[in-house]
Amino acid sequence: MLREAVARLAPPMDTVAAYHFGWIDAAGEPADGDGGKAVRPALAMLSAAAAGAPPETGIPGAVAVELVHNFSLLHDDLMDGDEQRRHRDTVWKVHGPAQAILVGDALFALANEVLLELGTVEAARAAARLTAATRKLIDGQAQDITFETRDRVTVAECLEMEGNKTGALLACAVSIGAVLGGADDRTAGALEAFGHHLGLAYQAVDDLLGIWGDPESTGKQTWSDLRQRKKSLPVAAALEAGGEAAKQLGELLATDAHLRVGSEVSGPGEQYGRLAAEHAAARETDPASDLMADFDEAEFALRASLIEQAGGREWTAQEARRQHQLALDALESVELPQEVRDQLAALAKFVIERRR
Amino acid sequence: MLREAVARLAPPMDTVAAYHFGWIDAAGEPADGDGGKAVRPALAMLSAAAAGAPPETGIPGAVAVELVHNFSLLHDDLMDGDEQRRHRDTVWKVHGPAQAILVGDALFALANEVLLELGTVEAARAAARLTAATRKLIDGQAQDITFETRDRVTVAECLEMEGNKTGALLACAVSIGAVLGGADDRTAGALEAFGHHLGLAYQAVDDLLGIWGDPESTGKQTWSDLRQRKKSLPVAAALEAGGEAAKQLGELLATDAHLRVGSEVSGPGEQYGRLAAEHAAARETDPASDLMADFDEAEFALRASLIEQAGGREWTAQEARRQHQLALDALESVELPQEVRDQLAALAKFVIERRR
User: Do the domain assignments include residue B162?
Assistant: First the structure.
């Protein structure tokens, strides 16, 4: 179903999208790439079953949510300058920034098309919810970008950003099938709450993997989030913990901030200038434009260990467990077929225990 | 209504959008900037009246269409490397490429929100049509980008691209109010046809202004489209006309193509590398990355005059008149309140005669 939807794209967008999803390689040859964890489509199908509807009722919702998720990956990888995703070069790196923007736009439009072409009242309600979730997703990315140019961010700000960037779409995924299946608001609301907390648990785990994850399994660089100066939960928690390590970390991050040329606004643009230039054929990357050029691995290792000493790593692991429990509590608050409940719980467990 | 919708955006996106619409200047001070011709909102309101509904029925459609139009301007200016729009620096130039991507995404999502929050069957139909039009808009931009890296494009390809890039959204604008007003398919279809032909007339005029327009009134650089190697109608028509001038022009454009480093795919990326780098603070633009760096004004003047000698200018003016007439014919094919018919015809006249 996802492939059928993507096949509607006009060339060369269909090829670029197929590369992004891992269906073909950079040369256009069929590939059995890692298309991601597909947690959201699985949730959308279960969501339909949760409403007592046949799982296939959730398919358009599953496809729409997966399309929106990948629209945001295409644009975020470009804005963040991420060069690798799922062990492969990102789309902007292979096909250029313009294609990353264009194909992202196309996937977003396609998501609405897949729902609205159903022409039912339920589909319109589902599309309205997906749109609301997408707006939050974009708010979250806006906050995330701003955070990178600040030398500190509170845990509260960080949780709000992650609730927008990750919680909203997971909440939509786990309720959209139910909405398409005609669920009442109480059921849809409980599923949404489950998804929201699951999203925060998911993101907390992501933040741990972003610093301490094994590049072999994550497919990202070591210290990936530190390289990008992401103010993720472990960093925010460490800074708020106080103590010597927190103080040292705060000073280091402040220095990073001063190392940077330009204002909050030109900040993302600079990194962008670097990555777009990198892509440009027959041009050498200008090292001066690489904010972290003068950093060696040891500097990242130091930051990581200071974050851990200040307790940022343990706090984030705790937060993941706490959000996981809140998600399970939300499930308990509503009547659901036992097997659906079990499968949702199993997915939540996977999210917490994943290493990638 | 548009301002209210945009005010829903979280900072800093609300500010960036306000700059784009010309409500504030780059410093954030209130400005009475040129917010564009607002042809589409006017059409959407008239469209409601065309269905015998009160014009305000068309407001959400007018806002949604204007949001989608501006989403595409934000992203296209970045992809095309346009530095000026409406006599002002474009958003990527002032606020950086990342904000141009992000705010474009937000305006697109907002467009769906404005329609779907109405929660009516008509609104869902309107949203479905807007989504279809947006997909064509994106197809058109994809074709436009590809054309820039080719040394020739047929008139047919060019018309198809312009039908997607300009015709589709105008067709949606002039029918969306009617759809919201519960118009029958025949009326909506006739209005859509009017909008489609009007869009092609509009684009033909745009292509003329893109080469021979007065920078004072267009707010674009001289030879703007030639600088970007756009294969617009005058160029395509000139190349197909044959004859000496066409031959010379073809050879010049072929040489341009060979001047360029990289493939079709890396093409946009390169220009992009240049523009993003330009934005990057504390960095000099790398002239080697400016594809047209070694061109002087005389070269553009030569191309423009060859296009005119080959008949590309006159053919395009003819095409504008032809599409204008087809638009008026579409209006005649359906019952409409006389004053609505008159106002639609007046708008069509304005589109043809505009100098900006």
Answer: yes
B246 Cα distance to chain centroid: 27
Q: Do B102 and A262 touch (CB under 8 A)?
A: no
Picking from A43, A238, A242, A228, the residue whose alpha carbon sits closest to that of residue A149 is: A228
Q: Are residues A19 and A100 in the same domain?
A: yes
CA distance A203 to chain B (A): 21
Low-confidence ranges of chain A (pLDDT < 50): 261-270, 279-290
For an interface test with A, give the residue of B80, B99, B101, B258 to mutate (most A CBs within 10 A).
Answer: B101
Domain count, chain B: 2
Nearest CA in chain B to A16: B265
Would you list the DSSP string of A27-50? TS-B--------HHHHHHHHHHHH
Q: Report if residue B233 sits inside a domain.
A: no
pLDDT digits over A113-127, tens only?
A: 999 999 999 999 999
Q: Are residues A204 and A268 in the same domain?
A: no
8-state DSSP, A24: B
Say if residue B168 is in the same domain as residue B19: yes
| Domain match, B187 and B305 both | no
Yes or no, beta carbons of B96 and A132 under 8 Å apart: no
Instruction: Tell me if B258 is assigned to some domain.
Output: yes
| Chain A interface, best mutation among B15, B73, B110, B135, by max A CB count within 10 A | B135
Which CATH number belongs to the domain containing residue B329 in this structure? 1.10.600.10
- Within this chain, do residues A59 and A120 fall inside the same structural domain, yes or no? yes
Residues B121, B19 within the same domain = yes
State the Rg of chain B over Cα.
20
DSSP single-letter state for residue A303: H
The distance of A320 to chain B (nearest Cα, Å) reads 27
* CA trace torsion B217, B220, B222, B223 (10° rounding): -120
User: How many Å apart are CA A101 and CA B166, to the nearest integer?
Assistant: 19
Residues A288 and A202 in one domain: no
- Cβ of B116 and A98 within 8 Å? no
| Cβ contact, residue pair B267, A96, below 8 Å | yes
| pLDDT value, residue B261 | 41
Place of tokens 């927008």: A164
Dump pLDDT digits (tens) for B317-342: 999 999 999 999 999 999 999 999 99
On whether residue A128 sits in a domain, the answer given is yes
* Residue B52 and residue B196 in one domain: yes
- Assess contact for B98 and A268: CB atoms under 8 A: yes
Instruction: Label residue A237 exposed, middle or buried (CB < 10 Å: 0-12, 13-18, 19+).
Output: buried
Domain range enclosing B40? 2-213+321-353
- Chain B nearest C-alpha distance from A166 (Å): 16
Which of B105, B139, B286 to mutate to probe the A interface, most A CBs <10 Å?
B105
Chain B contact set for A278 (CB, 8 A): 273
Q: Compute the nearest-CA separation of B128 from chain A (Å).
A: 5
- Give B163→chain A minimum CA distance, Å: 15
